[in-house]
Each structure stands twice: as structure tokens, then as C-alpha cells.
Design goal:
Blueprint (H helix, E strand, L loop, with lengths): L1 E6 L2 E6 L4 E5 L11 H10 L7 H4 L6 E6 L7 H14 L7 E6 L8 H8 L1 H6 L1 E4 L8 E6 L5 E5 H4 L3 E7 L2 E2 L3 E2 L4 H4 L5 H7 L2 H5 L12 H13 L1 E9 L5 E7 L1 H16 E4 L3 E6 L9 H4 L1 H7 L6 E10 L10 H12 L3 H11 L6 H12 E6 L4 H6 L3 E3 L2 H12 L3 E6 L6 E4 L5
Helix pairs in contact: 1-3, 14-16, 15-16
Length: 432
């Protein structure tokens, strides 16, 4: 039997060697919305816990819409124009609208990416800027959260009379589920907030796990940060494994996000009977353009409520990685930390003792993964970067599976997760 796994904008097809027993899991099948634009219009006409935008906004208001960057599959090319149409009805002037790309600590977006995210007509008509997390002049200090997180956010967001965010609700390594307040609270934040919330104390915290909201210090921090920045309205979606919109809701940030998370759980969380010897994590475009993002596949499977692979198992991820580790400040910090350390234990010890700047948390996370599992990256165009980051490059799936066989034996249980960032495997209670 042949299997397929996403690779860049295409797929890889492979067979398993004799002796390997495969289980394939996907998020639950849900019919995509037949008319996404109509569904967005309906969500905006009947928002949750808030009046419609056309009633919230007024002529002369300064409005900021924070949207996701190119590393997120949120369909902002549909969401942002719909929001802008509501503002236009309210009489908001074009020159009073700022579209802020929530890049967090990623590299600035290119002109082409802004067009891909928003459409040429929007880019031509409105002011479109990127977050500047390392520029104090572009940020406003908003104090410290109840759990000690320093909050600052981009001036365009904080000084707006009406602050809006788009987003994508899916399992997230730190937030439990992404979207909601996070697009603003992290995407438009200053470096200190990003550093603290991605630091070893938060990452090591037992409440910081995929799918977990309650008792999650990261979730608490972004909630309070968004409140201080006065985020008043969100428009978020849930996608299926083929990146089709299956749910869209708009309204007051807290309750709207809660309802989206409830829906997301119903499709993303999938029970599995036990841990496996080998897991194959599909990522695909745009996440597999660099190793920083592609490594989310292995870390998501490892930081599920219970790691999906047994101690010493293999996690295989096909990823083109044409950008190497990635070009942003955070991506380069990840590369340096992985490359320059003598071993993964050094990365863990150093981080727990000395902390690290934003971006380098991915090195800490991957060191925790590599402490318990072998990570093999298939089809990378920059195998030297994979190797420098203490993962194993393999040219083909056949090579990766042969390596697993040599090290673990012929009789292996294999879990195939074609959409690993949109599928949360949960080991049954009796087998934890």
C-alpha cells in the first residue's frame, strides 16, 4: 500500500518496508463552507458579544487591523477586505486605517507577501506596515501582566480608536490553540513579551502544551496583553487539512475564541491507542519553507498531551527548507543555538540557567524533542543546515525508513499524520 504526505506545494508518495505496520490519522472530516465570503459576511453581521463593526466604528476613528504573516495559512485575503468593507460603511476614512502585519519576531514581510496576504487592491489603497519588535520608538509600554510578563505592543495598534485582529484557530505549541488574542498580543508585540512568553520557564511549565487552555501561563499572558492593548474585535477561522475554511466567527475576542476552540477541538483532537515506534509528520507549504517552521511538525507530535513516539523513537518530516533555517532574527538565533552547542543537553542546561532571546526558544523546544526522539528531515534542499541543527537529513522517505529499521528493528508501528499541525493525537488514558 502506498501513502502520501505533503511536501512543499506537492506531495511525496512512499511505501513502508515489510514489517512496518501503519496507522494513518487525520482530523475529523468536516464539510468546508460552500461560500466562504457569504459565511464571513454572516459572521460580521451577527458577531458574538459585540455590535457589528459598522456600528462600532465612526468617521474620524483611527482603526488598526492586525493580520497574520505569510507563515500562517489564515485567509486574510478574504478576511481583511470584508473588515474594510464594514469600516467603509461606517464612514471610516482610508487614511485612518492601518493594516499591521503581525510578524512577531519573524522577518519583515516582502511586498509580494503583502499582496498575497491582502490582495493588490488593498495594498494599493491602504497603509500596510510590519510589526517592529526591536524598535522602542514603534512600541508602547503597557506594564506587566499578573504572571510577570512585560507587555508592549506596536504604537499603531495601541493608539487606535478601534483595534481588530484576524487569525487562525488551530493547535498551538504554547497557546494551546492559536488565534484569538495571539495575533495581536504576540504578532504585534515588542521583543520583551515574546522573550518572556517563549522563555524556558513558560516552555517547561506543565500547562504549556498543545490543546491546553486552562492553567496555561502563555494563554493567560496573551489574554491580559490583548486587554491592555484594547483589542475589541476579532475575525477568525478554522481550517481543515486541505486549508479550506470550515468555520468562521467574529466578535468580542474572549467568547469568540472560546467558541472557535470548542469547534476546533471537535475536529483536530484524534484518539490513538498507544505510542508508536515511528511517526511521520506532514507539514507542507508554507511551513516547510524553512527548518524553524518545519520543525513544528516533530515538536507538535512530541508535545501532544502524551508524546506520540516512545522514548528513542523516530519522527520523520518531509520538508523542502529552501530558505534554510529561515531569514528572520528568531530563525537565525535558532540556527546559531542549535549549531554552536556541543549537544542537546548543553542547549537545555544553558537555557534553564541563562535564558535566551526570542526565536531561540525553538532551539530549546527541539532540544527537548531530540532528548527523547530522533528527528529525520526528508528532502531538504539545505541538508547541511538540518545536520547543523542536530537533526538527520535524508534524501528520500525510503532512506529515512531504512535508517529507522536499522536502528529500531524490522517490526515497527508507524503513525502517519499527513497534517501534523492540524491533527492533535491523544493517547488513550489507559495507555498513558
Amino acid at each position: 500500500m502506498s501513502y502520501t504526505i505533503p511536501y512543499s506545494k506537492t506531495e511525496l508518495q512512499f511505501d513502508l518496508p515489510p514489517g512496518m505496520r501503519a496507522t494513518v490519522i487525520e482530523s475529523k472530516a468536516t464539510a468546508p463552507l460552500p461560500d466562504v465570503e457569504a459565511a464571513i459576511a454572516a459572521a460580521l453581521a451577527h458577531p458574538i458579544g459585540a455590535p457589528p463593526l459598522r456600528e462600532m466604528a465612526h468617521p474620524g476613528d483611527r482603526v488598526c487591523i492586525v493580520f497574520t504573516d505569510i507563515t500562517r495559512a489564515s485567509p486574510d485575503q478574504l478576511l481583511v477586505p470584508a473588515l474594510l468593507a464594514e469600516l467603509e460603511v461606517a464612514g471610516v476614512h482610508d487614511e485612518d486605517v492601518t493594516l499591521l502585519c503581525g510578524i512577531g519576531m519573524h522577518r519583515p514581510s516582502t511586498p509580494e507577501e503583502k499582496v498575497a496576504k491582502l490582495g493588490q487592491a488593498v495594498v494599493d489603497r491602504y497603509r500596510v506596515i510590519d510589526n517592529e519588535p526591536q524598535n522602542p520608538a514603534a512600541l508602547v509600554d503597557l506594564g506587566v501582566t499578573s504572571n510577570g510578563v512585560p507587555v508592549s505592543a506596536h504604537r499603531a495598534a495601541v493608539e487606535a480608536d478601534l483595534l481588530i485582529a484576524t487569525g487562525l484557530v488551530e493547535p498551538h505549541q504554547y497557546a494551546g490553540y492559536s488565534g484569538g488574542r495571539k495575533t495581536l498580543a504576540v504578532g504585534a508585540a515588542g521583543e520583551p513579551l515574546i522573550a518572556y512568553t517563549h522563555g524556558p520557564a513558560f516552555v517547561d511549565h506543565p500547562g504549556t502544551r498543545l490543546g491546553q487552555i486552562e492553567g496555561n501561563p502563555f494563554h493567560l499572558a496573551v489574554t491580559e496583553a490583548a486587554e491592555r492593548a484594547r483589542l475589541r474585535f476579532i475575525l477568525n477561522v478554522v481550517l481543515d487539512g486541505d486549508k479550506r475554511v470550515v468555520c468562521v466567527k467574529a466578535g468580542e475576542p474572549v467568547e469568540t475564541h472560546r467558541q472557535l476552540v470548542e469547534f476546533a477541538r471537535s475536529i483536530y483532537e484524534v484518539p490513538i491507542p498507544h505510542q508508536y515506534d515511528v511517526a511521520i509528520a506532514g507539514v507542507g507549504y508554507p511551513k516547510d519553507t524553512n527548518l524553524y517552521q518545519a520543525s513544528r511538525g516533530p515538536s507538535y507530535l512530541y508535545f501532544a498531551p502524551t508524546p506520540v513516539v516512545r522514548a528513542g523513537g523516530f519522527i520523520i518530516v518531509p520538508a523542502r527548507c529552501e530558505e534554510g533555517a529561515g531569514d528572520g532574527v528568531g530563525e537565525q538565533r535558532f540556527l546559531a543555538a542549535m549549531r554552536d552547542a556541543p549537544d542537546v543537553q548543553f542547549i537545555l542546561n544553558d537555557a534553564r540557567k541563562n535564558g535566551y532571546p526570542p526565536g531561540q526558544q525553538r532551539a530549546f523546544v527541539m532540544a527537548k524533542v531530540l532528548e527523547g526522539a530522533r528527528v529525520v528531515v526528508v528532502g531538504s534542499e539545505t541538508p547541511e543546515v538540518v545536520e547543523a541543527c542536530k537533526m538527520t537529513p535524508a534524501a528520500t522517505m525510503e532512506d529515512a525508513l531504512a535508517l529507522a529499521t536499522r536502528e529500531l528493528g524490522d517490526e515497527l508501528d508507524v503513525l502517519i499524520v499527513p497534517h501534523s499541525l492540524l491533527t492533535l493525537p491523544v493517547v488513550s488514558e489507559t495507555n498513558r
